[in-house]
Design a protein that fits this description.
alpha+beta; Glutaredoxin; 7 helices; 4 strands; globular
Length: 161
């Protein structure tokens, strides 16, 4: 039996729910209310010591981190594979998911501060993100490529505007 501990609109929770849906897998939904800090409840921390969502429990075994959960599900239920067939295509997939997790996810977080707003914060992050050209490439072509990922792996020297 699959149990998914998740929070409604969080990016990582959505990633896993999309995977479950694409693979046609039934699961027991365990909604974690972040506004009530249920992810810091001792019972939840016993499952996921990081106190973040999502967490998958499969027949008593706990798997955490959305990307790891998705790869686990793809290996466990191979009938409808989500990963590419060739090693090179899988390498490209891993680069893209790593970039999305490392740079894309933080870009969606609100950075509160004196006189700042969520909109200004997101705009600043987009302009100054080391993956802006990968995201731009992906938005135009619908795919990422190793060449683009390699060109943006070096940090840029930018000053905050």
């Amino acid at each position: 039996m699959l149990e998914l501990y998740h929070a409604g609109l969080t990016s990582c929770s959505k990633k896993v729910r999309h995977c479950l849906h694409e693979k046609g897998l039934d699961y027991q939904s365990r909604l974690v209310d972040l506004t009530r800090f249920e992810h810091h409840d001792p019972a939840y921390l016993a499952l996921n010591p990081n106190g973040v969502v999502p967490t998958l429990v499969h027949d008593g075994a706990v798997v955490i981190e959305s990307g790891v959960i998705n790869e686990y599900l793809d290996e466990l239920f191979p009938d409808r594979p989500l990963r590419p067939n060739t090693p090179l295509a899988r390498a490209r997939m891993r680069i893209f998911t790593k970039m999305a997790d490392k740079y894309g996810l933080p870009a969606t977080r609100v950075r509160p501060g004196p006189g700042s707003s969520a909109i200004r914060s997101r705009q600043w992050t987009r302009r100054n993100s080391p993956t802006s050209s990968v995201i731009h490439h992906w938005s135009i072509t619908g795919s990422s490529c190793v060449r683009c990922a390699a060109t943006v792996s070096a940090p840029r020297n930018r000053t905050r505007r």
